[in-house]
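Students often ask what a holo structure prediction actually looks like on paper. The answer is less mysterious than it sounds. You provide the chain, you provide the ligand, and the output is a string of discrete structure tokens encoding the 3D arrangement of the protein together with alpha-D-psicofuranose.
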Amino acid sequence: MANDSQVKAVLDRLKIETPSWAYGNSGTRFKVFAQSGVPRDPFEKIADAAQVNKYTGSAPSVALHIPWDKVEDYAKLAAHAKEEGVVLGTINSNTFQDDEYKLGSVCNPDPKIRDRAVAHLLDCIDIMNITGSQDLKLWFADGTNYPGQDSIVERQDRLAESLSRTYKALGANQRMLLEYKFFEPAFYHTDVPDWGTSLVHCLALGEKAWVCVDTGHHAPGTNIEFIVASLLRAKRLGAFDFNSRFYADDDLIVGAADPFQLFRIMHEVNIGGGFDVGTPVSYVLDQCHNIEAKIPGQIRSIMNVQEAVAKAVSVDQSALKAAQKSGDVLAAHEVLMDAFNTDVRPLIREWREGKGIDGEPMKAYARSGYAEKIATERVGGNQAGWGA
Ligand code: PSV
Ligand code: MN
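The corresponding structure tokens follow.
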């Protein structure tokens, strides 16, 4: 069994980035239920993200989405983040909300529209240069709805060319993270539907191109831990976008739908060195809180990841190896289940207290009065939401 200090050392290193869009209003295509106290601009989103960091001690950076988080002065936004005790993290591009992108962005048959999409990606890199962000996150809504609508292979060529133009603009310490998604908003075919397609493009581009695994972007029953193990083996797992799904891209709280799946994924991450010092894997939440409160929703998400990671790190690796070598199927399975069934909450509570934060982040936040404060103060203006 890994000892408690090993688990605590991993928890010390594990930083989980929160997304600016989690703090804004969100919903389904049927209804967005506005909440009180929701930020009106990126500065207020960052203030909320800082609360998540304050009560978890593990969320020191905030992912931005451009243009939702567009500001006049990104240096000022970065300085504000610093004052709040966080930094600006991944820059998420948006090539899916302009009318021009009806037939796609970087894969569009019209070269002028591809140019427009690439220009946006280059703008994102300019922002990264000001904010000090290391990662450019690429998720493309490109694809087709009908067989014959466009050439699948030519769209791959256009994708490769657009990616390569973007890749060339990356600075020495910058990376691009290529996310895949098997469907939506395109339904017949998606241009980056799976980890294989993403990996093929990343390998062709070079060592600054990495695959991002969004846990929600898989068909039901997909063995995500296999994908993660394979990408770690290929040294191309750049990041996670964490969330849970029951049916589609539900963007629910990570670990809520299937904590055992999250544990299995974290176990492969542990084996593949994803929690080692200097790991290239970054851990990011990509969620929306449609009906639950947003800041506590993010705190709960971080706690869920920490619990899954603590269990995964607790797996008795030597007992597991011995059982695997001797072909003892049941013993090997038992080693894994023992770790999964261990209640790691007391250990994590102790770890938090050792760091000088409250052992119960949800309760500490609720007691703090911050939710009431923002509900009173943030009156007037336009609440942030998708597209703002
Ligand atoms: C859309 O599926 C999506 O959730 C992707 O996962 C991106 O990471 C996110 O939006 C932000 O653009
Ligand atoms: Mn995502």
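The pocket of alpha-D-psicofuranose (ligand 1) is lined by residues 65, 92, 139, 179, 181, 214, 241, 249, 286 (CB under 6 Å).
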